[in-house]
Amino acid sequence: MDEATTAKPALQSGHDAEYFTKYPNRWARLRSIIREPAAEFLGTMILTMFGTAGNAQGVLFDNPQVSATPAGGWLSVAFGWGLGTGLGAWVAAGISGGHINPAITIALATFRGFSWRKVPVFILAQLLGGVAGAAITYANYVHAIDLAEGGPGLRTVPGTASLFGTYALPYMTNVSAFWDEFLGTFLLVMVLLAVTDRRNGPPPAGLVPLVLFLVVFGVAMAFGAQTRFAINPARDLGPRILSAMAGYGRAVFTFRHQYWLWCGVLAPVLGALVAAFVYDTCVYTGNESVVNRPSARARALHAHAPDQQHKQMLAGTDMV
Question: Strands, E, within the chain: which ranges?
Fold first, then answer.
C-alpha cells in the first residue's frame, strides 16, 4: 500500500475497506511538489497588485489629465502596500510560511535554519509573482498612464515608471537612499520576528496579517516617501522588469548607476540580516537560531536551548 494511502474501517460488516490518499490523481502529486513556491508566487503577486495599484491611484489620480478632482494621495500608496503585505502573507502563510520577500527568506535561512536548498526556488517564485502582479496593474491602468504621460506609448523614467519600481528623490544622496531602505527593512523584519516569537507576547491567531499591515503602513507613512520604500527585492525588481518590458526600456536599470541593485536589492537584504542578528542576539531564545546553538560543553552534556518556535515562518497556520 502507498505510504500516502491509509485504510478506513468498513462502516458495516461485509463492506470493503475504504482508503484515503494524499494523491487522488496525478495533479495532486505534482501539486505537493510545487505547493510552497506556488504559494510564494501567489502571495507576492497579491502584494504587488495591491501595492502598485495603490501607487497608481495615489499618483495618477492627482493628475488633472486623469481625474478632474484629486482622488489619490500618499494614503493610497501606504494603504495599498500595507494591505497587499497582510493579504499576500495570509494567502501563503499556512503553506510556505508567507515570506513573500527574498530578504526575509535569506534572513531565515541564515539565522533560523530555513533550508538553503529552498531559497533559490522561493526567490524565483517571489520574483515571478512581482512581475505578474505588476503586469496585472499595468493592464488595468494603462490608459490612465497614457493620459498622464501625454499620449499612448510615451513612457518616462522615473515618471510613471515609479508606479512600479522605486526611485529615490533627486535630493537624496546614494548613501542616504541606501540607509533609508536599510532602515525600513530593518524595522519590518524586527517586528516580524517579534510577532512570531512565542515567548514575546505574540498576537492571537488570525491577527498576524493585521500586524504586517500595520508595520508596512507605518514604514510607508514615516519613512517611505524619500525612496518609495522597496524593503522587498521582489516588490521592486519584479515590477521593474515588467516596466522594462512594457516600454520604459533599459533606463529603469541604469537609473543612478544600477540603483535597483544596491538600493532595491542589497539594502533590504542587509537590513533583514542585521535585524535578524540583533533580535536573535538580544532577545530570542529558541533553538532554531544559530545564535543559540549549543557550545561544545553543552553538546557534551546533550543540552540545547528549548524549542520555542514553530518552524513555519513568518505566519504559520497556528498563527493565522
Answer: 5-8, 18-21
State the Cα–Cα distance between residues 85 and 96, nearest whole angstrom: 15
CA torsion angle 80 82 87 89 (round to 10) = 130
pTM over 0.70: yes
Exposure string (b/e) for 103-142, b if CB count within 10 Å is 16 or more? bbbbbbbbbbbbeeebbeebbebbbbbbbbbbbbbbeebe
How many CB atoms are located within 10 Å of the residue 160 CB? 25
Least Cα distance to 255 among 236, 270, 272 occurs for 236
pLDDT in tens, 150-206: 999 899 999 999 999 999 999 999 999 999 999 999 999 999 999 999 889 888 877
- Residue 96 and residue 37: Cα distance in Å, rounded? 7
Interhelix angle 174-195/208-223, nearest 10 degrees: 160
CA dihedral (161, 166, 168, 174) positive or negative? negative
